[in-house]
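Worked Example 4.2. Consider the chain below.
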Amino acid sequence: MSDSKQNNSWLIHLNRPLVNFIMALLGMSAAYFTTVASIKVQLAEKAESALVAAIDKRLDRLEVTLKEGRVSKDEFFEFRNDIESRLARIEFYLTNKGDGK
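Applying the procedure from the previous section yields the following structure tokens:
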């Protein structure tokens, strides 16, 4: 009996550093993947804000042009439909991205 207890205690002492090493590896990999996911979210936010800024510029130019009276109704409605379709595509993209597709 005492031999089996000595063998078990030897195995326990050998496995402790191994378990510690494995736990350290798991912790480092979790930190790595969390950092990568955070960077992806930040890049997506920057891209989204750049897109919104571009659309805002286009709308500002349209307002100036409308005030000057150079746009016909047909051109205005064409532009409006274009903006609506772009916003719908952006919304569809963001919805699918949020679902993990």
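The chain is about 90% helix and 0% strand. Residues 52 and 87 are 10 Å apart (CA to CA). Compare this with Example 4.1 before moving on.
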